[in-house]
Amino acid sequence: MTIREQLEEREKTYLSLYAALSSRSRGRKVTEQECDIRPVFQRDRDRILHCKAFRRLKQKTQVFLLPKGDHYRTRLTHTLEVSQNARTIAKALKLNEDLVEAIALGHDLGHTPFGHAGERALNDVNPFGFRHNEQSVRVVEYLEKQGKGLNLTWEVLDGIKNHKTSGRPQTLEGEIVRLSDKIAYINHDIDDAIRGGLLREEDIPEEYTRILGTSTRIRLDTMVHNVITNSMDRPSIRMSPEVAGAMAGLRRFLFVNVYQNPAAKGEEEKAVNMIARLYEYYMNHMELLPGQFLEMLKEQGISEEQTVCDYIAGMTDNYAVKKFEEFFVPESWNF
User: Fold this and answer.
1) Cα separations (Å) of 222 from 36, 123, 226, 229?
2) pLDDT digits 0-9 by tens, 280-323
3) CA 25, CA 27: separation in Å to the nearest integer?
4) Do residues 64 and 197 make contact, with C-beta atoms less than 8 angstroms apart?
5) Rounded Cα gap, residues 40 and 45, in angstroms
6) Residue 166, CA distances (Å) to 163, 169, 182, 197, 222 in order
């Protein structure tokens, strides 16, 4: 019996009745020989961790555009915090930690430069629209490994696609990531807003702090514990109505006081304009796209609009600025 088979047997005896077992995965689109050491979800986790799109997350905006400070979250640190929250919950509930981690690490691979401002810009200019969760699936299915994709399992793709609030994951592990994403960004966005001087702890309404706590650490602990307590030995992932209501209220508070705050979002229109101009420029100069994207355009029949979206969405903040300057900002003359 291989190490992988031993681990699969251990899952059957240890994990919850409601867990997604590695040995019962719906599989991959392209059948592969099994690894002798790692179960399928662990392999998916490793493939995501080593892909180029994952490394680019370190230079993509979470909330604050190009912040002046080293301690603000990026899309990468957000992803790691989601993963940590989700693994804690999965381990306590005896669900599949490998599957949870794979979904969490891959859920935001399709995010644009400049966060939701970039996503809004591409959604406005692309006639097919743009949604970062669907783009994350495109990244792992079609764009990574020079267009070959990572060939992930059905369960991981389902969790990535359905991680947004409106999504409906088909596994409890996917539900955990969906909720952990919200838990992570609500708490770390408050922390970053306080660091940036947009909020003070005492500005947060007492109706929420009374239930959730009076610090980021306490609120995070309250939410994670509440999910575990209310989901134990049940076929769904949930919070108590009181904590869920307080979290929803806190999220609404953040939209008004942080996400729509001119001090935090004052540069957003510049970012939106930059992405829109880049899209227009590449649509008129398709020959400037890298060879991989031109090959996909020619050989796979992907539309020009989707091809340009794929390229721009994969840019880091710094690279998008660099390309914008290259195309639209005059260079100094050398006499």
Assistant:
1) 40, 36, 6, 10
2) 999 999 999 999 899 888 888 889 999 999 999 999 999 999 99
3) 5
4) no
5) 9
6) 8, 10, 12, 31, 23
